[in-house]
Write a structure and sequence with these properties.
Largest sheet of chain A: none
Order of helices and strands of chain A: HHHHHHHHHH
Shape of chain A: elongated
Number of strands of chain A: 0
Structural class of chain A: mainly alpha
Mean pLDDT of chain A: 85
Helix content of chain A: 55-70%
Oligomer: homodimer
Number of helices of chain A: 10
Distance between the termini of chain A: 58 Å
Number of domains of chain A: 2
Chain lengths: 217, 217
DNA sequence: GTATATAATGAACAAGTTGTTGATTAATCA
DNA sequence: TGATTAATCAACAACTTGTTCATTATATAC
């Protein structure tokens, strides 16, 4: 990315990004002006416009860059492998690599997933995880008539819980190692929803939810 | 709220709120100006300032009002009752009341929890649920040495998954009834984490995660 | 229904932000 | 070192903001 660029440009962009991050943290994205950023970064306001169209553009490029790095790792996740690890109570190596990628951009994600953060951005990651799971999950599920919960809700649950744990890890200063977080995810997620999908494990047999049911148990 | 208010004021505030919601949906909160809202609502710009300090103030009051209505219901939730329902595969009545409250403000929450939504707002609800659970959960947990997952991660998981399911329900047009959603929540959440906390259910015994562990199982 | 109170309008204000331009200065690359 | 390219600075019109004040319109109370 920064290869083959004039060192002055690299410096300017770093200063602008750093200033943006600090401003988001202190007053939220809504009220940040180009003037704010330029002042804070000690860069001429005109210089800002040599690089970006407006504040949203600066943030958007950064978001895109960070997302792409995560996506490259996330597509390598395989639900079957994850479950295999979970059953052995081991962390899932591919998910460790993924968490390391978040760790590498910790400052950025801490702000973007924090109280001044960006919901649309978080939803993008959730959707990434969701669609990634959908491709694999049908092999695992019992017959549809055995499902206790509609598939879309199950996927929502899996991605929400994962992203939630990720967010908590980031917010709390990333004190646990990626390996430890991965193990937590394995334990919490696969022991849970496996049972919820009607998968072996429990002895309790529960009827399926129909969308118009009153009470069928 | 709208009692004892001049009908003109009520009308103006409704117009302003409606305009704000439509503008957030179409272009996001960041670039909305007072001029935008006034034009869209067909209200004089000066009139806006008779009611609110700025755009953020208008949104903030609305958020606060909606949050308070939810909070009043949420504090009545009791984790023990919820688990009792879950074990009988029944929806939890108190959570149905809560979901009905969301339904009553569906238009607002659909925008606030959607792609143009507000992360800080969503985190407030997550925190509400989290702190509410914390007060009750210690009675349920096995001894600390038996816990498979740190308590803060377990709480994060529970609240994230719940809020995630809620968000999916709202986003997908609230087609299921509150009762059906409640039942989904019961099935997905309590079958899962109960096992994950080391609660009876499973025959598999897994060691506890220590924050510096390498591998201890 | 009429009178009184009060909400909404419309016009005008300085102050601040935006996005752009062109001339000048400074840093980097080869 | 010289040529190239980035950053700076000042100035611009257009727009938004937050406020004021006189005027018009509409509820509410009697």
């Amino acid at each position: 990315m920064t290869d083959k660029m004039d060192r002055r440009q690299v410096r300017t962009q770093q200063l602008l990004r750093q200033a943006l991050l600090e401003l988001i943290e202190s007053k939220g994205i809504d009220s940040i002006t180009v003037t704010d950023i330029a002042t804070h970064a000690q860069v001429n306001r005109g210089t800002f416009y040599l690089h970006y169209r407006d504040v949203a553009d600066l943030l958007e490029q950064w978001k895109e860059e960070a997302f792409e790095r995560i996506r490259a790792r996330a597509v390598q996740l395989d639900l079957n492998e994850a479950i295999a690890c979970a059953l052995n109570d081991e962390p899932y190596p591919t998910s460790i690599r993924l968490l390391e990628e978040f760790l590498a951009n910790g400052d950025f994600f801490r702000v973007m997933f924090g109280p001044r953060g960006d919901l649309s951005y978080m939803l993008r990651f959730k959707e990434l995880m969701r669609s990634n799971m959908y491709n694999k999950i049908t092999y695992i599920l019992p017959e549809e008539s055995e499902q206790l919960v509609p598939l879309d809700y199950l996927l929502t649950y899996l991605s929400s819980a994962n992203i939630g744990i990720l967010q908590h890890w980031i917010e709390s200063g990333m004190k646990l190692s990626p390996r430890e977080v991965s193990l937590i995810m394995m334990r919490i997620l696969c022991l849970g929803p496996l049972a919820a999908t009607g998968y072996k494990l429990g002895k309790i047999q529960l009827p399926r939810i129909s969308t118009s049911a009153q009470r069928d148990g």
